[in-house]
Amino acid sequence: MKFEDLLLEIGGFGRFQIFILFSLCLPRINLPMHFLLHNFLAATPPHHCAIPHQEAFVNLTMEEVLLISIPQEPDGTFRSCEMFTQPQFHLLLNSSLQPENNSIIQNCQHGWVYDHSQFTSTISTQWDLVCEQRGLNQATATFFFIGVTVGAVVFGYLSDRFGRKAMLLLSLVCSVIFGMLSATSVSYSMLAITRTLTGVALSGVSLIVLPLGMEWVDIQHRTFSGVLTSIFWSIGNMLLAMVAYLVREWHWLLVAVTGPCLLSIISLWWVPESARWLIANGKVKQAHRHLLSCARMNGSKDFAVSSELFPSFHLSQALRRMAADKTPGGSYSYVSLFRTPVLRKISLCSGAVWFGVAFSYYGMSMNLTGFGLNMYLSQFVFGIIEIPAKVIMYVLMNRVGRRPSQAWAIILTGLCIGANIIIPTSFTSLRSVVAIMGKGFSEAAFTAVFLYTSELYPTVLRQNGMGYTSFVARLGGALAPLVFLLDEVWRSLPEVTYCGVAVCCGSVAFLLPETLNVHLPEGIEDIE
What we know:
It comes from Pterocles burchelli. It catalyses: 2-oxoglutarate(in) = 2-oxoglutarate(out); GMP(in) = GMP(out); orotate(out) + L-glutamate(in) = orotate(in) + L-glutamate(out); estrone 3-sulfate(out) = estrone 3-sulfate(in). InterPro entries: MFS_dom (IPR020846), MFS_sugar_transport-like (IPR005828), MFS_trans_sf (IPR036259). The chain crosses the membrane at residues 139-159, 166-186, 192-212, 224-246, 252-271, 346-364, 376-396, 408-427. The chain contains 22 helices and 4 strands. The chain is mainly α and 528 residues long. It folds into 3 domains: 1-41 and 128-327, Up-down Bundle (Growth Hormone, Chain: A); 47-114, no CATH class; 335-527, Growth Hormone, Chain: A, CATH 1.20.1250.20. The strands form 2 sheets. A two-stranded antiparallel ribbon has the order 1-4.
């Protein structure tokens, strides 16, 4: 008897599975509130060089002081990173006569003055991460995703070794600890370290939530459960916009987005361990207990009663047979993903797909001010557009299949990014519409890749597979914010990079096998 057949007997999608999925949705909401927090945590408000007070400025207004102290851009705005070596009083008579002699222009010497109308404080204003230090500001997101990358490897292995639920709980507890430590940071170095460790911890949540829910659901409802769980990411996206709008001080913003992890820890108390994992690791008694609970809650009382009266004849016997089929293979590691031909191809191709999905998704998500909308509104709209994108993806994955849906979602994301390179910046509304469409496609691609990958790998290697692909994805996430620095080479180079990577990686998805209506593989032999 296969586990899928056993699930059908006890109820493959009843009250028990719905309860588990909704319990796991709260941890899912926490994720975007940290993964996309950089948009607000490290926001850089308008700024200019600080001008030291001089006796000659006594009778001048602040606007006049700036006029004679700071060079102007062609559009009339003051430069953010430069000042005159000496006040240029002649500009009071004609401000259009900007000096052409660069020798009288220097970098800011006395710090910066920031516009606090939108943000009370961010890490940019706290530690002057602007101008020459701009790279450190973008690196904050990279440090976080480096942590997520490391966490993917660590929790991928540990959750296959010690169980899904225990590692999910550990991940949430560590997220609370390091998230709160981040909020108390007194230096940039402390923030960089604690954000990296927060990324390591949250990686476990990202990695485990979907497979833990999926392993309790039958074939017919796998897509639905995957999309349902993913929708709560979008809800977290919208909540982040509202929380950031209400909390404009970066210390308290970190506290506000970390606090909900405590509720997630409480909700996890009632979530059972994956029966598939328990059986695969020979823990038959625990699997037996959870399956009986599932049968009772789903109303399969005849099955539950017969299993309790004749355990050796029915359920326990079937579980021992399944466990015996799975345990002789020994222990598995990440190396196992590349030992056999079919698994090797799946691992290489899925790694490329995950990199493209994450790289393009975070490239769009961290450019809230580049599409002509208010950044809070952009964040909220980007969250809203993800929900219909997920619903459409749900229909397509069930009708058209996983493979074409995955491939075209990434390719269309890249094409939307590319389109905005061509559309003039004066066409604000059109650029916003194309950006929102691209964001929808990118989220559809992310929704599909979690479900698709969890169906590609066997139970004995599923978390290792998810850990490896998540590792590659987080490399994409870590590189995405740094690509913005390429605008110093050519203004459109970041968008060209995002577009090219998305189209290439989307094409690789056509090399993966289709998994629509296919039993979840239990062992490597099922794949090969």
